[in-house]
């Protein structure tokens, strides 16, 4: 939690404000804004690549939540007991087939110890996840057949996303009022239920008790940075895209503070909800909370669902939990898809593309669905985790670092501070000026270096990924970053100039069309010369 708050204050909030002000000032998406320094347009392409990777596998996570949601529409959750065709002899649960707690088992310490011993025992929820939902294969290269129910839920996910976005931000803006607020209702219901359970206080103590030795672990700081980048959406291009639809004089500084703090508070609040239930589960199993706590997919689809089976009316709590996950996931997916669509429309910019934006949205959704099909096979979970760990991890911090360097040092911090002042009516606070120029890039660089030094290959439970799959992972990670130098070289070569220095200088210089999109906002040094015609951005925004 300490690294999380430090990353929030010195990286999360400043970068969030930087991206909002960046997109709002130019009223352009993650590609168009690089008129500020055309040589760095590769950063925008890198953001698009990252958003593409995340959009592909993130909707698979949503579709699994859909699947669990549908499977919760029953009198007894299917992962409650062990006498199903997919269960193994190692399966042991604390809930009987009739849905009642096996008190004789739960009250016998020696038997409970044997039941919860993870080296010998697997829970019904774990076997349901591995052998029924995933039907997991033994190797990442062994794809096997497509799991049709998961494929159907993936189709539902993409249809829902498209229907909410087919009219752009006009439709998604209305939907987000529900998807962004209703999860708070569900969280509060689960929180009230959780803290009233026996053992909940033990889970909350485990959640709040610091493990100071972890502060020296670079992976913890890297995870904190990843969580900040994921939860706030930094370096995806989504913040720039959504901010581009703001009114020019909107107070995005206020928005940055409110949204960032609310986001952080929600994360902490959700931790109380999760760990109160896990504490209850640990109390029933008579084991430490650390024995039942998990991370990643294991927490959302194994540990927490297993804890829900111990609650009265467990299907109700399961429906609420997975409905909340679906809404949270859809909110993120809206932003990812809108980022890609807006970037494509801005880049091509023809009248036909602008008039038929719905067709572009549909095309992106169809391509995303098709690319997600391999993740619904028996080896899908291996690929999903590979993409999650490599495709959008350290590339996010590299993109953010280069964006700070470009805006602050290539374009010039004084000019950008004046741009923000012209837009908001006041300059950025001193703290943000210092963070943008020095603190945020430095912290990001240190985290990147130490993450590389302490790098450990990805594993999934006991499965060790083969070398060729790790090579694919690194290729995905580099595919977004490599856009930056490739486009920079291309731009320098194509720029006018007799010498390399002149070409470099011209490639870095802001485009004449850089600035506020609407003519009425182009004042001061952006005021058009006499007889100057409006540029394409004016016509597009109008």
Q: Can you tell me about this structure?
A:
Keywords: Disulfide bond, Membrane, Metal-binding, Sodium, Transmembrane, Transmembrane helix, Transport. Na(+) binds at residues 231, 263, 328. InterPro entries: Na/ntran_symport, SNS_sf. The chain crosses the membrane at residues 6-34, 46-70, 146-166, 175-195, 228-245, 257-282, 316-337, 358-384, 390-413, 434-455, 467-490. With 542 residues, the protein is mainly α. Helices cover 68% and strands 1% of the residues. Strands 1-2 form a two-stranded antiparallel ribbon. The radius of gyration is 25 Å and the shape is globular.
Largest sheet: 2 strands, antiparallel
Number of domains: 1
CATH-level-2 architecture: Up-down Bundle
Cα-based radius of gyration, to the nearest Å: 25 Å
Reading side by side through the largest sheet, how are the strands ordered?
A: 1-2
How much beta, percentage-wise? under 5%
Q: For this entry, what is the oligomeric state of its chains?
A: single chain
Secondary structure: number of strands: 2
Question: Could you list some keywords that capture this structure?
Answer:
542 residues; Amino acid/polyamine transporter I; transmembrane helix; amino acid:sodium symporter activity; transport; sodium; disulfide bond
Question: How do you describe this structure in short?
Answer:
By secondary structure, the chain is an all-alpha fold.
SSE map:
Layout: H1 2-26, H2 41-71, H3 103-106, H4 109-116, H5 124-133, H6 148-165, H7 169-179, H8 182-195, H9 200-208, H10 218-232, H11 238-243, H12 252-285, H13 289-292, H14 297-308, H15 314-348, H16 351-355, H17 357-372, H18 380-391, H19 394-424, H20 430-453, E1 459-460, E2 463-464, H21 467-481, H22 483-494, H23 500-508, H24 536-541
Antiparallel strand pairs: 1-2
Disulfide bonds: 82-91
Pfam families: SNF (PF00209)
Organism: Takifugu rubripes
């Amino acid at each position: 939690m300490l690294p999380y708050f430090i990353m929030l204050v010195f990286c999360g909030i400043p970068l969030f404000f930087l991206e909002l002000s960046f997109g709002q000032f130019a009223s352009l998406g993650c590609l168009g804004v690089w008129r500020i320094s055309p040589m760095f347009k590769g950063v925008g392409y890198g953001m698009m690549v990252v958003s593409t990777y995340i959009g592909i596998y993130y909707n698979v996570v949503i579709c699994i939540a859909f699947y669990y949601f549908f499977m919760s529409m029953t009198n007894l959750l299917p992962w409650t007991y062990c006498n199903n065709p997919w269960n193994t002899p190692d399966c042991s649960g604390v809930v009987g087939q009739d849905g009642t707690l096996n008190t004789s088992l739960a009250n016998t310490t020696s038997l409970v110890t044997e039941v919860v011993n993870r080296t010998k025992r697997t829970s019904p929820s774990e076997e349901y996840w591995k052998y029924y939902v995933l039907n997991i294969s033994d190797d990442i290269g062994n794809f096997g057949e497509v799991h049709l129910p998961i494929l159907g839920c993936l189709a539902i996910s993409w249809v829902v996303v498209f229907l909410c976005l087919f009219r752009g931000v006009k439709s998604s803006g209305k939907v987000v009022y529900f998807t962004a607020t209703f999860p708070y209702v569900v969280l509060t219901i689960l929180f009230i239920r959780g803290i009233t359970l026996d053992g909940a206080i033990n889970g909350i103590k485990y959640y709040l008790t610091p493990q100071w030795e972890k502060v020296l672990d670079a992976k913890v700081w890297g995870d904190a940075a990843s969580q900040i980048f994921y939860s706030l959406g930094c370096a995806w291009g989504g913040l720039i895209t959504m901010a581009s639809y703001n009114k020019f004089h909107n107070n995005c500084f206020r928005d940055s503070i409110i949204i960032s703090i609310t986001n952080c508070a929600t994360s902490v609040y959700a931790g109380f909800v999760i760990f109160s239930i896990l504490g209850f589960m640990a109390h029933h199993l008579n084991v430490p909370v650390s024995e039942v706590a998990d991370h990643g997919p294991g927490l959302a689809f194994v540990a927490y669902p297993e804890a829900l089976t111990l609650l009265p009316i467990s299907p109700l709590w399961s429906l609420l939990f997975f409905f909340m996950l679906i809404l949270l996931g859809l909110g993120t997916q809206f932003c990812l898809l809108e980022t890609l669509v807006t970037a494509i429309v801005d880049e091509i910019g023809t009248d036909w593309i602008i008039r038929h934006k719905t067709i572009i949205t549909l095309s992106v959704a169809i391509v995303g669905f098709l690319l997600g099909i391999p993740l619904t096979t028996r080896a899908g979970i291996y690929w999903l985790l590979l993409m999650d760990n490599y495709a959008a991890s350290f590339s996010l911090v590299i993109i953010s670092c280069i964006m700070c360097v470009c805006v602050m040092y290539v374009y010039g911090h004084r000019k950008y501070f004046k741009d923000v002042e012209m837009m908001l009516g006041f300059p950025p606070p001193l703290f943000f000026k210092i963070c943008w120029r020095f603190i945020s890039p430095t912290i990001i660089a240190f985290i990147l270096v130490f993450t590389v030094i302490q790098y450990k290959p990805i594993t999934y439970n006991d499965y060790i990924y083969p070398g060729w799959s790790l090579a694919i992972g690194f290729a995905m990670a580099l595919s977004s970053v490599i856009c930056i130098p490739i486009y920079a070289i291309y731009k320098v070569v194509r720029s006018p100039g007799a010498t390399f220095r002149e070409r470099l200088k011209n490639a870095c210089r802001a485009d004449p069309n850089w600035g506020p999109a609407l003519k009425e906002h182009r004042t001061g040094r952006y005021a058009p010369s006499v007889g100057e015609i409006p540029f394409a951005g004016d016509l597009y925004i109008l």
